[in-house]
Write a structure and sequence with these properties.
Elements (H helix, E strand, L loop, with lengths): L24 H16 L21 H10 L15 H11 L11 H7 L1 E2 L19 E6 L4 E6 L4 E7 L9 E2 L5 E5 L4 E6 L4 E7 L3 E7 L5 E8 L1 E7 L5 E6 L10 E7 L4 E6 L4 E6 L9 E4 L7 E3 L5 E6 L4 E6 L4 E7 L10 E5 L2 E6 L6 E6 L4 E7 L7 E2 L6 E5 L9 E5 L5 E5 L7 E6 L5 E6 L4 E7 L5 E7 L2 E6 H5 L8
Antiparallel strand pairs: 1-8, 2-3, 2-33, 3-4, 5-6, 6-7, 7-8, 9-10, 10-11, 11-12, 13-14, 14-15, 15-16, 17-18, 18-19, 19-20, 21-22, 22-23, 23-24, 25-26, 26-27, 27-28, 29-30, 30-31, 31-32
Helix pairs in contact: 1-3, 2-3
Length: about 500
């Protein structure tokens, strides 16, 4: 049993804020088999419903699980069991779902192949957009509250299409190099391919039981999926999501590992893989005839998160050993330096820009109220910007004066800071919807406007003029957790995450 699975076992007071008896786990298992197994699968690996494993439920509080069991989930097949099960039985089932199964579930290449399904024939579809929006200024918006995706016109700020997604999309959607196709990964391993020209799903496959994220190669030929269960990377054909190869993430010493993250490195024509339980970084070449055998780069510590320098020659990664970050030269495979960063920097949500002719990188911090700014030439921290609380996302655009950052984990999480990119000071603090969490900014392709999320069931996308800071429009949505502009993503634009 991994240490991360122990937290849900601390049952005292977890549900009602008071001491409660240890649940009857045998009864809970019986109730699962009778009421849940048909949709969520034997051993809880998922079926018509999502996987109910500790890894899949790690970000959901016990009270939220209990609420869904009791009242069901609107606009889904999840029924309400509040009139079927007694409160104590629901408590027990809630506890049971947060424990690891008696037998650790497995997922094989044959399982992946059997899960593959084609939903539309791309060859029979028009290759030009069947809508009037600019295809490179579309936004893909994830509504986490009810597991849907919206396709939004970035000029008119209107929803063109809305469709149901798999449970808990994770790691951000990625796009084909021409912007026509978008790829999604759900937390319980489902990969989906969607055609933005024709606004239709093309294919789906389940690549694992718990997935971190995916990446698309520079040439648009391959999709790489990084999994924590089982620990591996899965190569898919980007055209139809058919399985190409599975590579178990095992270190040279034989130690198996989960995957922390996978990204594409376009100038290098490769994928970069960070491992969570082995002190290695992998590089997998993507062309012209890749064998997907990893080139192994030794790291000083296990990697939880990383970002790139603008030229993709260096990897800036979190390192618990260094109490901050480590810089790895991808050309030589050597450690360049450590960077002393306090707390837990969220490098994958950081961004870079030019200041006085030099590249700088800024990262939010999920445990401390500050933004750290690093000089890419010296790898020194040149500024620590105090904020109202720990933050999650930081975004900008080459045509914006400001970098926008949230204070997602603090008591003031309804605030958004605008940091002047030259003075490195907070120039403005906005509270778009007082009392509701504001987070995750994405700019239009030209940087003229930006969309900001209100992470609430009765939330919204708020459109701002990026120069005047005036609100332009609100689109009501159910906890819109992230939004992604096609042009910014495929051009790897300055200021956006990759």
């Amino acid at each position: 049993m991994r240490v991360g699975w122990l937290a849900p076992l601390l049952w005292i007071g977890a549900v009602h804020g008071a001491t409660v008896p240890e649940p009857d786990l045998a009864l809970a298992e019986h109730n699962y088999q009778q009421h849940c197994q048909q949709c969520h699968g034997v051993n809880r690996i998922g079926g018509a419903g999502p996987a109910l494993l500790p890894q899949s439920l790690s970000r959901i509080k016990p009270n939220e699980i209990r609420e869904v069991i009791t009242n069901g989930r609107p606009a889904s097949q999840m029924a309400a069991f509040g009139t079927v099960l007694a409160p104590a039985q629901i408590d027990g089932l809630t506890h049971h779902l947060q424990r690891p199964p008696a037998v650790e579930p497995t997922w094989s290449e044959d399982d992946t192949r059997r899960s593959h399904r084609l939903l539309a024939d791309v060859a029979s579809l028009p290759d030009k957009p069947q809508h009037h929006a600019d295809p490179l200024n579309l936004f893909v918006v994830v509504e986490a509250g009810d597991h849907h995706v919206d396709i939004v016109d970035g000029d008119r700020f209107e929803v063109l299409a809305r469709f149901a997604s798999h449970f808990a999309l994770h790691g951000g959607p990625k796009f084909s190099p021409d912007g026509r196709f978008v790829y999604f990964a759900s937390r319980d391993g489902w990969i989906s391919l969607y055609d933005l020209h024709n606004l239709t799903l093309i294919a789906e496959v389940r690549a694992g039981l718990n997935t971190r994220n995916l990446a698309v190669s520079k040439d648009g030929r391959w999709v790489l999926v990084g999994n924590t269960l089982p620990g591996n990377v899965v190569v898919l054909d980007a055209r139809d999501l058919s399985l190409v190869k599975t590579v178990a993430t095992v270190g040279l010493d034989g130690q198996p590992s989960r995957v922390s993250a996978v990204y594409t490195a376009p100038p290098r024509n490769s994928f970069i893989v960070a491992l969570k339980d082995v002190k290695e970084v992998w590089e997998l070449s993507t062309g012209p005839h890749p064998d997907f055998v990893p080139r192994r780069i030794e790291a000083e510590d296990y990697l939880d998160d990383f970002s790139f320098s603008p030229d993709y020659r260096q990897l800036l990664a979190t390192s618990r050993k260094a109490q901050g970050g480590q810089v790895i030269d991808l050309d030589t495979g050597r450690i360049v330096t450590d960077i002393a960063l306090p707390g837990m920097p969220h490098l994958g949500s950081g961004t870079y820009w030019k200041r006085d002719g030099h590249w700088v990188f800024a990262t939010p911090n999920i445990s401390k109220g500050l933004i750290s700014v690093i000089d890419f030439d010296t790898w020194k921290v040149i500024q620590q910007i105090p904020t109202l609380g720990p933050g999650f996302f930081l975004r900008s655009h080459v045509n914006s004066r400001y970098a926008w950052t949230d204070v997602f984990f603090g008591p003031d999480n309804d605030a958004i800071h605008l940091i002047d990119k030259q003075t490195l000071e907070i120039a403005h603090t906005l509270r778009p919807m007082p009392g509701k969490t504001a987070a995750h900014v994405e700019f239009t392709r030209d940087g003229r406007y930006l969309l900001l999320s209100i992470w609430d069931t009765d939330g919204a996308l708020i459109v701002y003029d990026s120069h005047t800071l005036k609100e332009i429009k609100r689109l009501p949505m159910n906890k819109p957790s992230g939004k992604y502009n096609v042009g910014n993503k495929i051009e790897f634009a300055e200021g956006t995450s990759h």
